[in-house]
Amino acid sequence: MISSEVRDLLIDKMSIVSQPGKKDICIVGPINLPVQLEQEVVHFHWYTWLVLEESISKAEILDSLVAYDLASLQQSSVLVYGDIKNAENALVRMHSICHTGDIFGSKRCDCGYQLTQSMKMIVENKCGAIFYIANHEGRGIGLFSKSLAYLLQQEGYDTVEANHLLGFNDDSRSYEEAIRVIQSLRSKPVTLITNNPKKLAALKEAGLTADEHIPLWGGETDFNKFYLETKVRKSGHIAEKETISTLI
Ligand SMILES: [Zn+2]
User: Fold this and answer.
1) Cβ contacts of 33 within 8 Å, gap of 6 or more
2) Comparing C-alpha atoms, which of 109, 111, 130 is closest to residue 119?
3) Average pLDDT value for residue range 5-32
4) Is the peptide bond between 30 and the residue preceding it cis, with omega within 30 degrees of 0?
5) In Å, how far from its chain's centre is CA 46?
6) Is pLDDT of 245 > 60?
7) Model confidence pLDDT, tens digit, residues 52-68
């Protein structure tokens, strides 16, 4: 059991989001997270969340932490910058976890670049949020399957084909939890950072209040050229040239 002193310190920073027919979500934060972004240390507000299998109180959650074995499960989180509740214009990026790109700096994809770039865009905009979604590895197929898909890609298959050959749909990612979390932080519309108009449409369909999207390009290398072309050709992403012409 957690002592009442410790419980009192934590409980105000926890909130439970309930919605009929859906599992409760416990959100923790804001937590001060100073982040080195190029030459500058930027102070983000960090929030994590946990989907509750049954409706329990915040005190019961704290008392169950050890039993949950959370280290072997996946939890997502969100980095918030600025006054997310009230700012007129908030940029939101839904970033899918990429072990190879984000952590190792792999150049087989553009994820690491996109993550840092979105953080910069959000800081420049003075307000926004980056969701780091933990169960989205390899478009939702998981890290182990992604390594098998990479082997197939080395044999010449593209990303979409490789996932199909392993028995997966092209894209099995759900944004439901992240949308519920942003809804708890802000009720005004957001601008989504994405190159994929289909993603904006899908997120709006799933309940996100977004009024537009802005693109994020760059980070192309010799290794990810084919991957980026596949995104444009097969996954509905808009190409950079088109993007530039729509911005002018
Ligand atoms: Zn990646």
Assistant:
1) 43, 44, 45, 46, 79
2) 130
3) 96
4) yes
5) 13
6) no
7) 999 999 999 999 999 98
Compute the distance from residue 188 Cα to the ligand 1 centre, in Å.
Answer: 30
Which pLDDT score is estimated for 165? 96
Q: Which residues pair with 17 in a beta bridge?
A: 25
CA of 90 to the centre of ligand 1 (A): 25
Catalytic residue among 24, 63, 158, 171: 171
CATH number of the domain that 195 lies in?
A: 3.40.50.10990
Q: Which one is catalytic: 173, 186, 211, 222? A: 173
Residues paired with 91 in a beta bridge: 128, 191
Would residue 233 show up in a list of annotated catalytic residues for this protein? Answer: no
- Tell me the CA–centroid distance for residue 136 and ligand 1, in Å: 10
pTM: 0.88
Compute the distance from residue 14 Cα to the ligand 1 centre, in Å.
31
Number of domains comprising the chain? 1
Average pLDDT over residues 179-195: 94
Q: Distance between CA 140 and CA 146 in Å, rounded?
A: 9
User: What is the percent of the chain where pLDDT is above 70?
Assistant: 90
Neighbour-count burial for 72-99, b at 16+ CB within 10 Å, e otherwise:
eeeebbbbbbbebeebeebbbbbbbbbe
Residue 131, both tokens: 């969701």
> pLDDT digit string (tens) for 213-222?
898 876 666 7
8 is catalytic: no
Neighbours of ion ligand 1 (CB under 5 A): 98, 101, 109, 111
Domain containing 192: what range? 4-247
CA of 99 to the centre of ligand 1 (A): 7
* 55 CA to centre of ligand 1 in angstroms: 35
